[in-house]
Amino acid sequence: MTVSEVYRRGLLALACALIVAAAMAAPKPAQAQEGALIGGSVGLGVGALLTRGNAVGVIGGALVGGLIGNEIQ
């Protein structure tokens, strides 16, 4: 694994952490969107890991995770 791959994965992990933190700090009326935000962040991370940072895989993972999180919530 090269330095750029480590850097890219670190940025993706930071983005996921920020999305989860924003979802947890959301006010009570926004709880309907919390599931979609958390699902999207988990999907983003999974898509990044499974496709090794491929942009289509990351975006697709975030979309699928957001849809599943929205339905579960």
Give the secondary structure arrangement, pairings included.
Layout: H1 3-24, H2 31-51, H3 55-72
Helix pairs in contact: 1-2, 2-3
Oligomer: single chain
Major sheet characteristics: none
The gross shape turns out to be flat
Mean pLDDT: 73
Helix content: over 70%
Strand content: under 5%
The span between the termini is 37 Å
Return the string of H and E elements. Answer: HHH
Structural class by helix and strand composition: mainly alpha
Radius of gyration: 13 Å
Summarize the structure.
Helix content is 84%, strand content 0%. With 73 residues, it is mainly α. It is flat, with a radius of gyration of 13 Å.
Descriptive account of the structure:
By secondary structure, the chain is an all-alpha fold. The protein has one domain (3-72). The protein is 84% helix and 0% strand. The chain contains three helices and no strands. It has helices at residues 3-24, 31-51, 55-72. Helix 1 packs antiparallel against helix 2 (31-51). It is flat, with a radius of gyration of 13 Å. It starts with a helix and ends with a helix. The mean pLDDT is 73.
Supply database-style keywords.
single chain; 73 residues; mainly alpha
